[in-house]
Known about the structure:
The protein is α+β, with helices and mostly antiparallel strands. 50% of the residues lie in helices and 12% in strands. The protein has helices spanning 9-15, 39-51, 64-71, 75-87, 128-135, 140-158, 172-176, 185-191, 197-201, 223-259, 264-271, 297-310, 312-327, 342-360; strands at residues 4-8, 18-21, 26-29, 62-63, 91-95, 101-106, 123-127, 168-171, 202-204, 212-217. Helix 10 packs antiparallel against helix 11 and helix 10 (223-259) runs parallel beside helix 13. The longest helix is centred in the last third of the chain and has 37 residues, at 223-259.
Amino acid sequence: MKTFTNISNAAIAKMLGLELVGRECVIQKAEDAHERYLVAQINLYLILQFHANSNSGLTDLLSVKDLAEQLSCTPKTVYRSLDILEQGNFIQVTGRPESGYVSVQILNIGDMYKRRGEGGKGYFICNQDLLRVFLGTKAIAVLRASLTAMIVFTTKQTFSASKIVDRVRIGLNEIAMSFPVSSRLCDIKAACDADGSFGSLFERVNPDLKKSICIKLQQNYDAKQIKQQVRIKAKRAIFDEIDEINDIIRDINTDIYQDNMIHSRNASDLWQHHINLWDCLDPMHQTTMLPLLDITSDVKNDCLTIAQDFGIDTVIDALRLYYQNYKLSDAVHFVVDKEKSLGGLIRTIAIELCQMKTATA
């Protein structure tokens, strides 16, 4: 499960019976909205985004029981919600190999990255803390208000000329568009209660007016800021790991140059980084120098992005496996070209590591 994911504004708007019109993505009630989705379907869609590949939209095999526990519902509700999402063209169920498991594909996942002139409607960034708030919201009215406000908030941020807007004024009529026509103004205000779930997401920064509220996303859920913090931490940890491994390799190459062998102390130091030389070569009879873990600045930046999605430890483990299984192995030769990138390989290894962790959990 990823640490962060991007959620399509257009997809969530469609679930709420809305549409985003024009280059400025003005929010309107959809004319062809025949169904508003319930809490279980909306939150299931959010959960699936955390399991989906960012490019293909494909998920691994998921436990329906685990999904039901996250949603606080029954497996039957999960199956019904999957069917409803599939009928709405939000997902495609790609496999049900046995009872209790399912794999899906998020449809049109790349549309949110299109430019405005190409029909792109943007996205909001969701981290696991924010997901937990949505999952804890059981009232559909509050979830509608929260997600509508999130779409309006991120859209106004995106189209701000300064790009530093951290608070916006939202009309209650905008939020009301995701509610049934029969809803009253007091219903809308109740769903936006500053002391409820809505208030845990958005801070009121100015007094409420009769027909609008001024809100700011709570700092705990400002995923952009949290991603930057993770990136800073990842940079320190990953770069230090690469430097430490290369320092040990240089000592090992000194052993090889002087004695045609690798001394046990240096081999043990590399083992502390989970790189086992005994699996790849004979340390007692070694005449060829070992390659360094050469990582270009572009690939290092790729590693920081991968760490934001899958965790720092996963990236470090992926780098260790890359060195042992590709750099040291005679059986595998990885050559970077136009179709293959080292960053892509490390991401693939990181994904496989996460799959293994899920399988053994």
